[in-house]
Design brief:
It contains 7 helices and 12 strands. By secondary structure, it is α/β, with parallel strands linked by helices. The strands form 3 sheets. Strands 7-8-9-10-11-12 form a 6-stranded mixed beta sheet, with helices on one face. Strands 1-3-2 form a 3-stranded mixed beta sheet.
Length: about 240
């Protein structure tokens, strides 16, 4: 009777697995992975056929495509988008570049171009530069939309240019352009930056720190004491602003 019970237990237990069925499933998975890998990396189905470039104004499209160095026909999955973006970002007028895959057959490139922030003297004319001092374009006369920056030494990569640009950014829109437009920013001394307003008023700015607070303080002071040729605003210390 005990033998019968044991036999019944074996009969009612879990069914034995079929090794051929398991092997078939494994082979099927491997085959599917191989097909997917081939489609992504080896076939001509998902390859670069088009490069879409956005955000261009001063840079021509051919320069961007050439700098990417991604040949047509390259499998999309093989494209190192970060490396391609890094190569394109080396273009002089490109500040930042983003590259994304656009399945099934394109790359989308978004270029953030450098924008002029300041004017600096260059011989008999002026050079418009961005916050890194990179030349954007040249002009015979200073465009009124850009403050004249005074710095020492080379312009490109000069920290004084970055400081002057940060001051210009802080003051952008803080003062009424009709009465208190920024004419020049003297950043030859990084700890004692001076801002000159159209009409002769002067702003003792101090260093480039706390630019937003200094701009708000100057806005209040200029409202209470309108600029004139003799006016001096001292906002170098945000805790003790002075009007002279």
């Amino acid at each position: 009777m005990a033998g019968g019970a044991a036999q019944a237990g074996r009969a009612g237990g879990a069914p034995r697995s079929d090794p051929w069925k398991a092997a078939f499933i494994v082979l099927l998975i491997v085959a599917l992975l191989a097909v997917v890998t081939w489609v992504l990396l080896g076939s001509r189905l998902l390859v670069v056929r088009e490069v879409r470039v956005e955000g261009l104004d001063r840079i021509d499209r051919e320069s961007v495509v050439g700098a990417l160095d991604v040949p047509t026909g390259t499998p999309l999955a093989r494209v190192d988008t970060e490396a391609a973006a890094g190569r394109a970002a080396k273009l002089r007028l490109a500040e930042r570049v983003e590259v994304d895959r656009s399945w099934p057959a394109a790359l989308t490139v978004r270029v953030h171009e450098r924008e002029p922030r300041l004017a600096v003297r260059a011989g008999d004319g002026f050079r418009l530069v961005d916050h890194d001092g990179v030349r954007i374009t040249d002009a015979d006369s200073r465009p009124e939309a850009y403050p004249l920056a005074r710095v020492r030494g080379e312009v490109e990569g000069n920290p004084a240019v970055a400081a002057a640009a940060s001051v210009a950014d802080a003051l952008d829109g803080a003062l009424p352009a009709s009465t208190a437009r920024v004419a020049a920013i003297d950043a030859r001394d990084a700890d004692s930056i001076t801002v000159e307003l159209e009409g002769g008023a002067t702003v003792e700015w101090g260093d480039a720190e706390d630019g937003g607070r200094k701009a708000r303080i100057l806005e209040v002071l200029a409202g209470e004491h309108p600029p004139d040729s003799e006016r001096v605003y001292d906002v170098s210390s945000v805790d003790m602003a002075v009007v002279g």
